Amino acid sequence: MALFIVITVVSILGVLFRQTYLRFAAAAAAEEKAPRPFPAKAYSVWLRGRARTVVSGKSSKNAKIVLGAWTRDHYPGWLKWIFIGLGASLAYLAASGLFFAVFIPRGMFGYPLLGHVVAGGLFGLSLAATLLWRGRAYRFDKDEEAVFEGFACPVFKNLSKAFLRKILFWAFALFGVVQAATALGSMLPIFTYETQQAMIVVHRYSALAIVLMAIVFVDITFVPQRRP
Questions:
Q1: Whether the predicted pLDDT of 60 surpasses 80
Q2: What pTM value is reported for the model?
Q3: Using CA atoms, how far apart are residues 203 and 187, in angstroms rounded to an integer?
Q4: 14, 140, 213, 224: most buried by Cβ count inside 10 Å?
Q5: Helix 193-222 with 80-103: angle, nearest 10 deg
């Protein structure tokens, strides 16, 4: 458990640092200011400014506009409930699961656990509907498929945002299936107690992977580029 807590904190902070620093570097490049290897002072000033923007009322309104436009374009009409269901269930699952895993040694129990189970069912249904509705939009082109052919060490450089979204989409779906399988398996009496405990561990790390991918996907899809 202690190892999972360390990995969770370090990985989430690492992804947040990476995404924010990439935006800082892009903003500096737009103003023709080449950043030093790590300009800590300039980055901290920029980060505080972005943090104040995020908590402002204007930022909340802009987020609603962006999400509303995305929903209308990609989930028209009643299909918006697929997107809403996926986002709402993921938010609750991530918040409740990681909170109890990191801060509550006993683990999840009571009403939060009941809500977690219900949200898990909604997440599974929403994910399946998302794959059926949006899977075609995330198909890899022939040039993109060639990237995966015949390499032993998968090192990706200079990926376009569209290509990265496709990778994140299908990786998200894969780990979503792992989540469903381990959640069900850990509750079935056909498995031994040790196997159920192992499934819970896999479930936690899979959930962490989903959260990290969701952070990157939201950042490159919904958060606009801005200057410092």
A1: no
A2: 0.84
A3: 12
A4: 213
A5: 120
DSSP result, 11-43: HHHHHHHHHHHHHHHHHHHHTT-PPPS--HHHH
Residue 208 burial (CB count, 10 A): 20
**Number of domains into which the chain is organized:** 1
- Looking up tokens 């699952």 gives 93
- Domain span at residue 153? 60-222
Query: What CATH number did the domain enclosing 100 receive?
Result: 1.20.950.20
Q: Is residue 131 part of a domain?
A: yes
Specify if 92 maps to a domain: yes
Alpha-carbon span 32 to 49, nearest angstrom: 20
Rg of the chain over Cα atoms, rounded to whole angstroms, equals: 20
Strand ranges (DSSP E) for the chain?
none
The verdict on residue 13 lying in a domain is no
